[in-house]
Records
---
Amino acid sequence: MSTNQLKARWKAGKAAVNGWLAIPSGFSAEVMAQCGFDSVTVDMQHGVQDYLSMVQCFQAMDKHPVTKLVRVPWNEPGIIGKALDGGAWGVIAPMINTREQAEAMVSACRYPPHGTRSNGPIRHGTYGVASNYQSIANDEVLVIPMIETKQAIDNLDSILDVKGIDGIYVGPSDLAFSLGLTPKLDHEDPTILKIYERLIAECGKRGIHAGIHCGSPEYAARMIQMGFRLTTIANDAGLMAKAALEAVATVWKVAGDKR
């Protein structure tokens, strides 16, 4: 049985819904982990997260059946190894634009002989999976490069051919930016949608799973129907703000707007 339940889900041919943590709070992570997400990602790139808050979020989620992922700030072996040692079962790395960058990411996520990750799984090795972590890590840890630029699309085949990649993750805003379009999450532009179709097709040929960041649950559902196997809905801060705005608006609407 797989220790990484997201990987097991993908292997069974199922899609997954992913939560996203921008708020550096174990309590926020604990709440999100109980909302039905299959996986939850700590965002160390654009979220207000650092390494210690990542660990706190992972600790808060440990008792819940979600796969803990992290988006690291950059494709750098030090922070990738440290995030994995801290409890992540998968790494999402931004701005992977070339085969060489994808190879470097895989290497940073894998122990020898398949990579160059340094041994020292301080949380993984002593909590939960005990002494067998090193024997399963190379098989269980998910390597998910972000495809989010025109350069990455131009180099797509060579990136996806890198051995050891489990999935890709689309950053819609940066992808649109690099194509001269308005940066946003839920696109209807035919150029973007055609790229999505190509990504799904090329990933499918290689047994790789495509993921995407979405702004709304409706768009996330549509992307699953298109063929994406991991869909993220906004982030904890965005979901909280949306619910709060709707609640206040409802109060004034029902009250007859007597402000």
---
Amino acid sequence: MPQCRHVARAAVSGVAATALLALAAPAWASSTVPLHSAHQGSTAADFQQQCADSRFADRPADHDGWHFVLPGGPSAGGFESLTLTFDNGSDTVDVTVPDTADAYPDALYPAGQNGSRLIHAYLFTPAGWTLVDGSATISGQGDRFNLSHTCAGQPTPESPTPTPTTTPESPSPTPTVPESPTPTVPESPVPSDGTGGGGGDDDGSLPVTGAAVTTMALVGVGLIGGGVALVALRRRRDGITFTS
């Protein structure tokens, strides 16, 4: 009889355990939940900031810190992975948490010191990015996950693009037009007066020398004297003729 009671108790315990597993299995099945719609389109600078969070201690100064949390209690299980979409100002970037292969530090953390459910997710992105949307795979059942708080970084100032310096072009030299030579008018030859004198003066008159003037005076005196002699001679001849 004791052996029969032991077998009966074992059978009851087995049925109870099977029932508990059947009830628990649906509650812990993996599911995908979206980012809370009120947190879509958020920037770290415009959201509730808690830079004193110890998980942000290693955040680079030019990066934004993001903290996501999974609400819902034990039935929600914990994060298995998150896929987040950001707008960096010129394009969209998809970031997976956890993923040690990407360029953005991220990690999942449990609920507490002794907790086993991963309900905290941290991520660092370059400062100024906008959280567009996201989804999370969780180990239980839930309806969403939330952005809990942020810590905004300071964007690295961009170096100004140097303005290209335009080298002024040297002006084309103006071609020098050679001046037309002034035609030289040959001087008309001065006719020689037979006296062996030199060329004429600027006014075209012949040079007068002392010797030439004296000669001309003597010639004139000689002619006058010759004329007087001829007149006297003629009168004398006429007188002789008249007397006869």
---
Amino acid sequence: MFPICYEDKCLLAINKPAGLSTESGGSAHPSAENEMRAWLHAQMAPRREPPYLRAVHRLDRVTSGLLLLAKRKTALSALMLQFEAHQTRKTYRAIAPTHPEKSGLLKHLLYRSADGRRALIGSASGAQEALLEYRIIEELPGGLADWELRPRTGRFHQIRAQLAHIGCPILGDTDYGAAAWQAFQIKLHALCLECVHPDTGNALVLDAPLPDNWRAI
């Protein structure tokens, strides 16, 4: 059971811990999706079928933060259309090496590695534009900084690859050249998600507080 950031009849938002997958697909290994479905099922009357619950978007296993799940297929479809149309807004925080330019917009072309596990920057076939707004909130000891990040596009491993490309890999992200921190965890947190509620049509702002050990390096 994870901290619940928001819940109503069609949506559930949690603060996912780093180290846990968003979804498990056909396997039985633990995931936020499966854990929260079991939690909802336990609150229902005995012998009822497990409830519908699907993640609207994905967070990497190594990333913590706001994860939105849909309790209805219609809500899932409506929200996925918002993500595809870039009508949602995400805000992340990261601990990474500091940079001389304290704010700006990163523009790169991204494509997947041959094994599909990493994002690479270059003009290879199939490369897509990635846009990332950033702002350094505070300088930290050891040449690090606390970053605020707002991706304008939703590419695979976009934040991780773009920060690494400018020489600022996220702490713990050994896949992109950073020093190790903790197993299956990096200092990247999904702080806020802004979208439109699929039932009411009202603006919805969801927040997930930073981990207690955010500044522990």
---
Amino acid sequence: MTEYDGLFSEYPRKTRISRYRPAALILTPLLAILFQVYVPMFLVYLAYLELPLLVTVYFALMRRSPVVGLFLGAGIGLAQDSLSGHPVGMFGIVKTLVGYFAASVSLRLDMDNPLVRLILAFFFFFFHQFFYWVLARALLGQQLVFDAQLTAFSGLLNAAVAVPLFQLLDKLKETG
């Protein structure tokens, strides 16, 4: 026994890993991607919503495993790349980073708190947009403009949508 054994036994680690049916883990991101690709064609004002990102953040936060978050982000990002007109791999790389970092953050914070969910949804939207901009400039040589004010506004709107969306997705959890 070392002098540090008592420190760790007094504070048991609280990791509540949420479990989901495989159908929920496949259909939810697919529906979010289809929404992202097709709905803005008919309702232009909904183009600001980044539902695949919000689904990636939600599942990464609730699974609480950086490796699972990494694979979820990569899968959702590559599926979004393949169905949208963007270069294949751009959303895959960015959502992989988001999934990994969201799962890493979830190990330290209480994910049931709506305020924490709101702040993290805003942060990861801004993170996603910034890294997409960096990668588009670095890998593709595109001269995109990063409008921080528009990104912050869109991030607030996505965060406002994320809180009720996350509560709705909480109902997909397996009980038991």
